[in-house]
Design brief:
The protein is mainly β. The chain has helices spanning 7-10, 13-16; strands at residues 20-22, 28-35, 44-45, 47-49, 52-55, 61-62, 79-82, 85-88, 96-100, 106-108, 125-130, 137-141, 149-152, 166-170, 189-197, 206-207. Strands 1, 2, 3, 4, 5, 7, 8, 9, 10, 11, 12, 13, 14 and 15 form a 14-stranded antiparallel beta sheet that branches. A two-stranded antiparallel ribbon has the order 6-16. The longest helix is centred in the first third of the chain and has 4 residues, at 7-10.
Length: 208
């Protein structure tokens, strides 16, 4: 586990300089953007792929409808929060729940399956929206004794393969070197998850 002052308090003064209000008791739909200045992940989208979330991987979706024109767009990862829970903005019956696995991996359920590993956390997600027009809000998680969101590179920093894609975790006490792609938690970058509001219907039939 990385130990530092939470990045929400230290890394993104723009969010702190404007009033923020929690919005836990009404549905909110949004995309997520990572904020960590002077790093490769700064202002990059966070996408759903393979029941995990990444920076630098495309959104992965599926739609069974025929003709294809009946399908939702399927090219964006859109989140929805309500009453401390988070889900993906889908049309698939039963939806797709977002959770944090015991090792801190930010995850989502497979379509048509409600399976969530024992010890995972489904609640304590919070969306804070700015009361100042044009100022981003933030999304964060307070369960499992966790702290910042982490973007963990796919390989050792400086390797010929490069750091992308980055896999998203929460900095929980149980997170270990064996859990992250590079084999070293210290390679991960803490970041603030900024909220980009989304307006419209379902963003995808289902995320794969």
């Amino acid at each position: 586990m990385l130990s530092s002052t939470p990045l929400f308090l230290s890394l993104f003064p723009l969010a702190l300089s404007n009033p923020l209000a929690p919005r836990n008791h009404e549905p909110i739909q949004f995309e997520l953007i990572a904020a960590r200045s002077t790093t490769p992940i700064h202002l990059q989208a966070i996408n759903a792929n393979g029941q995990a979330f990444y920076i630098g991987k495309e959104t992965a979706t599926f739609c069974p409808l025929v003709p294809e024109s009946q399908c939702p767009p399927g090219n964006l990862t859109v989140f929805s929060t309500f009453d401390g829970t988070a889900s993906l903005n889908t049309a698939v019956p039963g939806g797709q729940q977002i959770f944090v696995a015991p090792n801190g991996k930010l995850s989502y359920t497979q379509a048509h399956s409600g399976y969530i590993p024992p010890g995972s956390a489904l609640k304590t997600f919070t969306t804070m929206l700015s009361t100042e027009e044009g100022t981003p809000g933030t999304f964060f998680f307070e369960g499992l004794g966790g702290g910042d969101f982490l973007a963990c590179p796919s390989d050792k920093v400086g390797s010929e393969n490069g750091p992308f894609p980055y896999k998203i975790f929460v900095d929980v006490p149980a997170l270990s070197d064996a859990d992250v792609p590079s084999g070293c938690v210290d390679d991960c970058l803490g970041f603030v998850a900024l909220v980009a509001p989304y307006e419209g219907g379902a963003a995808a039939w289902e995320y794969t």
